[in-house]
Amino acid sequence: MTVRFLVSLLIALLCFTSSKADKVSLLPSPETSSVFMSSFATAALLYPLDLLRSLSMTSPGTPVPKLVGDFYKDFGAKGFVSQGLAPEVSRATVMRGVKFALYPRFHRRLFSGKDPHEGTTATKIAAAAATSVPEVLLIMPLEVSKILLTTDKTNKYGNSMIKALARTSPKKYMTGYLGVQYRQMSWGCGYFSTIGPYRKLVDKVAGGEETSNAALKSLVSGFAAGVTGAILNTPGDTVRSVVMKRNLVEGVPASFFPVAREIVREKGAGSLYAGFGAKAAHLGGGGALMALFTPMARGWCERRMAGGGG
Known about the structure:
Layout: H1 2-16, H2 30-58, H3 64-75, H4 79-82, H5 85-110, H6 121-150, H7 161-166, H8 177-206, H9 214-250, H10 256-267, H11 276-305
Helix pairs in contact: 1-6, 2-5, 2-11, 5-6, 6-8, 8-9, 9-10, 9-11
Membrane topology: Multi-pass membrane protein
Pfam family, one: Mito_carr
Signal peptide: 1-21
């Protein structure tokens, strides 16, 4: 039921945000197909980094070597490439897919059909903020299953996303919503409003033709924009991680603002940036890979749909 509802919601959103600039078709457009293909590849490649980020943020203030050592004791070496892999790749694929597919559509819908590159910083931020709302609603059950599986020391869920969700009350699927909403909105606003300026800066510094070394320039500008988003969203994401762990794993009621005050009071404001190194590498890498993969995948999709082969 949950899966059918989420798929239906996504289809409805794609239809709602379609403008005259979007071709109407029963098949996914090259724009949408390329985004989800790129999202899946990015999620799979970055899973180990995301696991490290998640461990750091659910236990702010705990040294990373200790977290890694404890995780190894609980799950073994295999755990670093398997524990919670399915929900994380699913979550990250949906998350980035929805974000990058809906963002240009929301921009066109909200601002008289203008593509993002024709917009201002303010319009890009507004479109990114609007995109984050349905994005978060779609990924919340996956966020919950991810927390349950990465902390499942007794293997009661058998590393199964479906079992984790089936044994969890649907009422808990929205646990930590405020923190997830903060995280997604702040990263999206930071990324989409800065990747254009970063690309112009990279072009200026690198010199030469704008199309020369395009892949490398996409990686650099995408990484810089991704790290900018990470700077903005890390404090709220740290709080979100603790809130979800306490509610879902420890059975202790917790909410966003009281937990934020507690962390600052007991461990200092700097602890809100727990795991920032891994997070910056993860989100910067995600931004870089999406900037690199998406145009490549779109070109391939357009050739396939035009009958030009691979």
